[in-house]
Amino acid sequence: MSEAIVSAEGLRAITVEDLTVEQAQAELAALAGEIAHHDTLYHQQDQPEISDAAYDALVRRNGAIEARFPELVRSDSPSAHVGAAPAGGFGKVRHAVPMLSLGNAFAPEDLTEFVARVRRFLGLAEDAPLSFVAEPKVDGLSCSLRYEDGKLVLAATRGDGTEGEDVTANVRTIKDVPNELPAPFPAVLEVRGEVYMDRRDFLAMNAAQAERGEKLFANPRNAAAGSLRQLDSTITARRPLRFFGYALGEVTERIADTQWGIRERLKAWGFSLNEPARCCHSAAELQEHYDGIGAQRAELPFDIDGVVYKVDRIDLQERLGFVSRAPRWAIAHKFPAEQAQTKLLRISIQVGRTGALTPVAELEPINVGGVVVSRATLHNEDEIRRKDVREGDHVVVQRAGDVIPQIVRVVDADRPDRGPEYVFPDHCPECGSLAVREEGEVVKRCTGGLICPAQAVERLRHFVSRDAFDIEGLGIERIQLFFEEGRVRSPADIFTLEQRESERIDRLVSKTGFGKKSVQNLFQAIDRRRTVPLDRFIFALGIRQVGQATARLLARNYRSLDAWMAAMEEAAKDREGPAWQELTSIEQIGPSVAGDLADFFAEPHNIEALAALRAVLTKVEDYEPPKVAAASPVMGKTVVFTGTLTSMTRSEAKARAESLGAKVAGSVSAKTDYVVAGADAGSKATKARDLGVTVLSEEEWAALIG
Ligand SMILES: NC(=O)c1ccc[n+]([C@@H]2O[C@H](COP(=O)([O-])OP(=O)(O)OC[C@H]3O[C@@H](n4cnc5c(N)ncnc54)[C@H](O)[C@@H]3O)[C@@H](O)[C@H]2O)c1
Ligand SMILES: [Zn+2]
C-alpha cells in the first residue's frame, strides 16, 4: 500500500468539522488515491482487500470533506467516478446511454431526505402522489444486453460507466439471458441488469474449486464478476451465473410509462426480475418494505446489500436526470453490515494447497445476523499488524453478505493485562519449512513444496501430470488415496511403491478395488518414467513461477541436473554471487523467479526430497538441443493447431513443430502460415479460410514435416 494511505489513516482520527484547509486537502488527495486503489482491485481484478463497509466509509468520509470544502474538490474526485476502466484483454464497448452507479442511503433519515429531495426538485406539494418501485439490490455486477431485431447482439460490463468490456460470448452461456425475444420488441433494445450467483451455487462452485486446488472466491459477487470477466467463455459456461433485468439503456421506442411497467415488459420477454419488489407511495412504505426484506435476507437464495428505490414514473425520472455519477431519481438503501462482539481465543495458521499461510481467528462462538461464527479470517500478516489484533482480545466480527466473516477491530486494546503483539510465524506449522514473503506480496508461503503435507496432494498431482512425469493411471483420486493411506507422501515414494507393496499387492487390490491388471499397468507406467528429460524433471518439482517454459530455459542453460542443482544451491546461498548473476542473466528469468528458485533450494527439506528422488530414478537426461533440420520446410513459419488431433497430443504436436523451427501460436491472424485442423475444428479453421491462410489436415501436416 502507498504512503498516502498511511497518512490518510492518521488524519482520519480528526472529525471533518475540525479539519484545517491543509489537512482537508491532504486527506482528499490521500482518499482519491486510496479509493482508486480499491476500485481497481474490486472492479478490475475482482479481488477486494477490504470489506464493502470499510470501502463505503472511505467514500462517505470523502463526500463529507468535499461538502465542507467544495473549493477543494479534485478533478479526480472519487465522487465523480463510476467503477474502473475496462481491463485489458476484452474488446471495449461504448455505452450509448451511460451506466451509472447509485447514491447511497444508510440511516432512515437518509431515506426521508431522499423522498423530500425528489419532491423539492419536482416542485410537488406535500400531498401530491409520488410512487417508487422498491426492489432488492442484488450483489453482483451490472451488465448491458443489446438486442437488435429481438436478437442478442452485444453484452457489456459497466466498466467506468462510459466504456465497458465486451463479454458477449460469456453472456451467451447464461441460461437466464434469452438469445431471442418474443415479439413485439423495439428495433433496438438494451436491457440492463445484474449478473449474479446464488449463494448455494457459489458454495458448491467454491467447493469444486478447492477440490481442484484452484482459486477460491471470497463471496458470490466476486465469483460472479470473476466468472463473467473470463477471457475464455468455456470457463464462464461452467460457472452457475444468473441474470436479473431491472432497467433499460438505449431503446428505439418507449415501451412503458413507469418503472413497474418496464418490469412487466422485461418479464414478458423472459427475463427474471429482482424479487420481492413492491410499488410504494411514501417514505414510510419504503422503510417498511426495507425492513421486510431485511428480515428475509438470510432466506433469500442470493446475497443482497440493500434495497433500491426508483421513482416509478418515467417522465419524472427524465425530469430529475442525473448528478455526476448517479441518477437523482433512485437511491440504494444499504443494509448495515452484521456485526457482533466476541473473544478471540487464538490465532491459528492455515496452510493452503499452494503453500499460502493464512491467519485465522478462532473465536468464542457467536451469533452474527443469524449465523453462528467461530472462525474469521485475518487475511494476512499486514492486516493483523494494522488492526493490532492479539490473542485474548475482544473483537468486532462482521458478516457483510460475505461468506467469510471478518474481524473489524479490537474493542479492549487498552486493558492493562493485554498479551504481547502477535508474531507471525516464519516457519510452516505443517512441515516446519521456512515460510517466506516475496517482495511486493502480502502472503507468506511455505517453501517446503516437496514435503509439506498441506501441499502434498497438489504437488504430487502436478508431479505426475502430463507435462511433468506423465505417469499414466495415476490420477488425482489415486494420489489422494495413496496419500491418505500413507503409501505415497513424496515424489520418491511413487517409485518405491511397487517394491514396498508388491508382496501386498493382493491387499492393495482388494482394498482399492483397482483390479490386479490395473495395478500392474500402473507399476509399468511408473517404471517407464524412471528416465526423464531434465526439463520435465525441473517442471515437475512445482517450484513457484517455474512453468514449462521456464523449466525449459533452465534446462537449456544448465544442461545437466548436477550443474543445475549446484548452481541453484549456490544462488540460494549467495543472492548476489556469480551463480545468482548467471541465473538472473538468463533472458526471461527475473529476480522474482530467481528468488523462488533460491527459496526452494534454501530449504533443506527440499534438498533431501530431491536426493531421495534421484536415488530412485534411473536417469535424468541431459538437455538435448533440438536438432533443427537445415532444410526444415516449416522453419520460421507460424503454425496454429486446432480441433482434436488423433495421431498425437497437442503438446506433442507443438513440441515437434518447435523442434523443426516453427513458431506455434494460439490464435489465427493474417501472419499465420498454416492452420492444422484436427477433427471438429471450429472457428479457427473458418477464420483461416476467410483470411486465405493454408489449412492442412493432420495427414497433410505429417507429410509436410516428413
Ligand atoms: N471492498 C472494496 O474494496 C470495494 C471497492 C469498490 C467498490 N466496492 C463496493 O461496490 C459498491 C460500489 O459500487 P457501485 O458504484 O457499483 O455502486 P453500488 O453497487 O452501490 O450501486 C450501483 C449498482 O447496483 C447494482 N444493482 C443491483 N440491484 C439493482 C437494482 N435493482 N436496480 C439498479 N441497480 C442495481 C447495479 O449493478 C448498479 O451498477 C459498494 O457496495 C462498495 O462497497 C467495494
Ligand atoms: Zn509446509
Automatic annotation (TrEMBL):
PROSITE patterns: BRCT (PS50172), DNA_LIGASE_N1 (PS01055), DNA_LIGASE_N2 (PS01056). The keyword DNA repair applies. Its cofactor is Mg(2+); Mn(2+). NAD(+) binds at D52, A53, A54, Y55, D56, S101, L102, E135, R158, E194, K310, K334. Zn(2+) binds at C428, C431, C452. Keywords: DNA damage, DNA repair, DNA replication, Ligase, Magnesium, Manganese, Metal-binding, NAD, Zinc. Its EC number is 6.5.1.2. The active site is at K137 (n6-amp-lysine intermediate). It comes from the Bacteria. Residues 629-701 form the BRCT domain. It is an enzyme of class 6 (ligase). SMART domains: BRCT, HhH1, LIGANc. GO terms for molecular function: DNA ligase (NAD+) activity. It catalyses: NAD(+) + (deoxyribonucleotide)n-3'-hydroxyl + 5'-phospho-(deoxyribonucleotide)m = (deoxyribonucleotide)n+m + AMP + beta-nicotinamide D-nucleotide. Pfam families: BRCT, DNA_ligase_aden, DNA_ligase_ZBD, HHH_2, OB_DNA_ligase. DNA ligase that catalyzes the formation of phosphodiester linkages between 5'-phosphoryl and 3'-hydroxyl groups in double-stranded DNA using NAD as a coenzyme and as the energy source for the reaction. It is essential for DNA replication and repair of damaged DNA. NCBIfam families: dnlj (TIGR00575), PRK07956.1 (NF005932). Belongs to the NAD-dependent DNA ligase family. LigA subfamily. This is DNA ligase. It comes from Azospirillum oleiclasticum. The gene is ligA.
